[in-house]
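Possible regression after last week's pipeline update?

I re-ran a chain I had predicted before the update to compare outputs. Posting the input and the new output here so someone can diff against the archived version. Not blocking, just want to make sure nothing changed silently.
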Amino acid sequence: MPHETVPNAATPDPSRSKASSCLRGALGCGGAALVGVLVLVVTLTWGSWGSTDFQRVAPEEMADRALQRSHKAYEVMGFKRTIEPGVEDIGVSTQNTFGSGFCYDGGLLGLEDRTVDGAYSMRHSWALDHVPASQAVPGFRRLHQFFKDNGWKVTSYGEGEQGRDWELFVQRDGGERMSFTWYPEREYFTGGASMPCAYDPEWKNGDVGPAGDDQRPPAFGPARRDQRAARRRVARTGEAAAEG
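New output (post-update):
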């Protein structure tokens, strides 16, 4: 399947618009230029409006959300192995890590680059080695279809044509993003789930570094998830018996 990338909307040619305005004589060339500047200012201001209007969510909760997204993608791919927390050699070994980063405020016109106090973004990253084509190819196609069927916007998708790696990038309203890459030559698969920016309710003036930078994920994989579900069922059964 050819590489697909969602195109951006075509931008009108300002020179043709300006020339047309001059020929019509409605505003004149100088007036057209002024209108263009005003339109640009309004567009930038509108785009940056509410850019720091983040929810207040604890880093632990955002980390759990990211982990849940990764778990679902892992299941759709059909992987069965359990990945222990951490990474020994990025790009080579298995990986199961959380990471947080700063959030930025572009200012009124979106032209600045300031960090937002107390705001952070959370991401879960995972990777598997020894993933052959017989497993990666059908799984990747299932994953692509899964996101299309569940309201995600596929921003880029490619099936490794012309020597490229297999890639899938998706996003949905609210700022969630996910990305996946399979490297055929190395039989290496990577995935990641990024959550939207949020304010840490526990942040205080003077705190340094992005919130949630100390989060550590549990072992990752369907076996460990089934174990946690079983423990919850046992706990609910015990509670019901106590009430009876």
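Follow-up from reviewer: compared with the archived run. The CA atoms of residues 7 and 95 lie 32 Å apart. Marking as no regression found.
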